[in-house]
Amino acid sequence: MTRAIVVDVLAREHGRRIVTVDVIGVGPRAVAGLLESLGVHADVYPFEAVARDPHVLRGYDVLFASAMSSDAPAAKKLAEMWARHGGGGPSVIGGPIASAPLDALNLGYDFVVHGEAEQVLPEALKRILNYEYDDLFEVRGLAFRYRGRVVFTGRPGYAPRERLAYLHSTDVTRYDAYWAARVYVEVVRGCSNWRRPRGVLPDGRACINCDLCVKAPLRSRLYCPAWIPPGCGYCSVPWLYGPARSRPLDLIVEEVKRLVDLGVRRIVLSAPDVLDYGRDLLVDPEPLTDPCNPPANIEALGELFARLYERVPELESREAYLMIENVKACLVDERVAKLLGEYLRGTPVHIGVETGSERHMWLLGRPVTKKDVERAVRLLSRHGLEPYVYFIYGLPWETPETVKETVEFMERLWRLGAVKVTAYRFRPLPGTAFQDFEPPRPGSPGYAIREKAEELNRREKRRWLGKLVDAIVAGWHPARRMLVAYPLPHGPVTLLRGPRSLIGWLVRLRVVGVASDRMLVGRLVSRLKRVAGKRREAKMLV
């Protein structure tokens, strides 16, 4: 049987993670599961495990890498390691980095898979393994070199829902401290926001105010007469991965059960918007391209949570924890908040806000209003969840006035119950409407947004002082020379003094200090139980 190694390069940039170090994402495991369904044995490795021992590559016939555009340096290193140590077979790269397929090809790979692997690999895999270039021209979604020239076969269509009906790999045990990590399980592929940005783009394209993406029938919203990519202008998800489609319930439940059986303690149901789960079934056979209508499918969401708790008893006993990721504020109503509070009380819910200016939201292609966000934060907080709100500074069409409005809105949301405020720096991504804009320069007005987020998060961290917290000790912070602990079910990273033998233990600690806007300091109260066997320490930078 052909043996494939699938390497997770996501968020490694130059070779190591400096943020979200406790996350195990979806993409590489989805690719591995797809390969297994096609008759190929697939093992998943994080990039750092391969970098520590490149000789592991020798045992495989083909390399698959999953990366983002910012991970190009690490992806290039992996291609070089494969050339020196690999089994001699082809190398393939995909993921968000493949939104610019020719750039990805120049990193040293034989093939680039553009778009969804489910649309490309079933037809292309055997031909890739045998270097049958002549037969690859008819498969859309591939870039490769052939007889001295670069070939891109064009964009593939989006995978129909039935092509997503396979089990993702649960091969996570090669990740450092996987038993403490947040492991993401895909429940929805693609995004339902097919609105477009309204401002003028650097190449002169501009919205013609036809309102097709807002008011037209759902299928008609897939196409823009001004050729502006869909969705919020900074995001490539709808363009690259299509309208929102739900994965089959039984496969989600089985994947979660297998992960928990392996010792995973924190499961995150992953989607651009978890509240899109089952909404696509309400409009089938039309594509789900309206971000706010119909409302959330309460019946489908309720069945998902009920089946998970029924099939995975560790969730009920709190030996493992279930969380969700992103929601759109326009879909959060009393019914939604009540359902989420019933199953996910005490866990975070992430709400993208991006700007505090109503007009700026409209220009960016955002589908929500400030009232939507305020309502969502109030309702989720009232029902026992922890709203996290996200902003982006340096966005196109940002002005001193939009910055002022955003800073004021951040304060208001914190007072309404948002327990974490995150500010990301705008980065232009290939395939998005904003790909040709420049990122913000240091000292630009938007940096006030970042400073406000840091201020609010420091204030919020002080609320933790004196609290007793149960946490998993996951690794060692070499710069601060302290242990790294992750509160359960989720909370600020907490630094802890103690022996390294505590790594792998569930402990109770008391919060005694604030290390930064992102980290707390705790003092050990007691050991509760070991949650991981003796294994190599995870050296983590937080």
Explain this structure:
With 542 residues, the protein is α/β, with parallel strands linked by helices. It has three domains: 3-161, Rossmann fold (3-Layer(aba) Sandwich), CATH 3.40.50; 179-462, pyruvate-formate lyase- activating enzyme (Alpha-Beta Horseshoe); 468-530, OB fold (Dihydrolipoamide Acetyltransferase, E2P). The chain has 16 helices and 22 strands. The protein has helices at residues 27-37, 47-52, 72-85, 101-105, 117-129, 212-215, 237-241, 249-261, 279-283, 298-311, 313-316, 334-344, 358-364, 370-382, 400-416, 447-462, and strands spanning 3-8, 23-24, 41-46, 62-66, 91-94, 111-113, 142-146, 149-152, 182-186, 188-189, 245-246, 266-270, 321-324, 326-327, 348-354, 386-393, 420-425, 468-477, 482-487, 493-496, 505-514, 519-530. The strands form five sheets. A seven-stranded mixed beta sheet has the order 3-1-4-5-6-7-8, with helices on both faces. A five-stranded mixed barrel has the order 18-19-20-22-21. A four-stranded parallel beta sheet has the order 2-9-12-13, covered by helices on one side.
Topology:
Elements: E1 3-8, E2 23-24, H1 27-37, E3 41-46, H2 47-52, E4 62-66, H3 72-85, E5 91-94, H4 101-105, E6 111-113, H5 117-129, E7 142-146, E8 149-152, E9 182-186, E10 188-189, H6 212-215, H7 237-241, E11 245-246, H8 249-261, E12 266-270, H9 279-283, H10 298-311, H11 313-316, E13 321-324, E14 326-327, H12 334-344, E15 348-354, H13 358-364, H14 370-382, E16 386-393, H15 400-416, E17 420-425, H16 447-462, E18 468-477, E19 482-487, E20 493-496, E21 505-514, E22 519-530
Helix pairs in contact: 8-10, 10-12, 12-14, 15-16
